[in-house]
Amino acid sequence: MGKKYEGKIVDIYKNYGTIKSIIDEHEVTVHFLILPDMLTDGVFRMTETIKYQMKNIEIRKSKVYVAYNLENIFDLEIKNWKFSKHKFEKIVTADHYTYLFKKMAGNDQEISQENLNSLIKYDKQVKEFFLKWILYIESQIKDTLIYIFNKLHISTTTIYRVLKGNGKTKSIVERQFKFVKSEFMFKPEFSTLSLKKSENDPNDIVVSPDSSFFGNFITK
Question: Helix, strand, coil shares of the chain as percentages rounded to 5?
Answer without folding.
Answer: 40, 30, 30
